[in-house]
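Researcher: Re-running this chain for the archive, since the previous output was lost when a drive failed. Same request as before.
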Amino acid sequence: MNTKKTSVFQNALIWFGAGVSIAEILTGTYFAPLGMARGLAAILVGHIIGCVMLFLAGYIGAKSGRTAMETVKMSFGQKGSMLFSALNVLQLVGWTAIMIYDGALAADGVMNTGRWIWCLVIGALIILWIVIGITNLGKINTVAMAALFILTLSIASGNGSMTVYYCGNILKDMNMMTSLSMALTLPVIIGNCFVPAIVKKMGHQKTLILSSILMLAGFLIVAINPYSGTLAIVGTVVRGFGNGAIFACGFALSAQVVDYGEWKFNVRSEGLVNSCVSFGQKVGLGLGAAIASWIIAAGGYVGTAKVQTASANSAIIFAYVWFGVILAALLLVVSLFLNIDKYEGQIKKDLEQRHKA
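Model: Regenerated structure tokens:
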């Protein structure tokens, strides 16, 4: 049987991508006290020394088809490899600690509740992820389904409730309410006509990812100039095509999640999945409008005032545009977890055989 393997170049791209992340960038800032010249020199020299050694060691494994620890045994034997295994565990623990600390710094910058609290929270989430494991994807998919509806309806509810404030205070034209409503509704209707064909060609997950990107792009178009009615309409049209596809795929995916649960755990849980969908709808509708209202209230919005303050207008823009950007980005992340499509053919085949038996 032929086994598909990655090339040296492909592995290089994988690890290059892993190095371009917030954790690595923040860790690089710890060299700032050395100054620009010495800091860059330390980073470059360290990378050259470390990467050359790691590349040569990895190259041996790639050529021999063995893991790094197996190639160590070739030179140092069974007992000698235990030292390198311990060192590997030590550096992984250290790197995990750095990433937890960086995550705590970022979270504390937003919530300002204490770094140690966020260290505990992030550490607990990592332990939870290990306990769940990738073998329990059925539970993850069920939770992801609820999150999908919560985020989608939060976007719709939050953005919809802010439209009147956005048109009246930012665009200064209440007639734009009708234009924006049509710009959102018509693409949803038109887009839904093509969703079945798109899903058939791309699958549910890729369609959800594409829809999330469209929603994100739609909000970002408005963010270019929130005071432009033209950009508001264009962005809403783009977002509308993504919005309709997400709802269509979301309801269809609930049946797939049920089948996946039966296939993986031999338990058919229509009630649980439908409850999660219903829960997501209710929470999303209420939470989206509530958070958007809290944002403009925090900005100092006064409903009886004839003219709003600059901070109130900024809060309206954030609630209408950037709140949507954040939720659309989270929606994209959730879509990446709904990886049922690759099992669909096998699931149908196995379930048919079980039902016949």
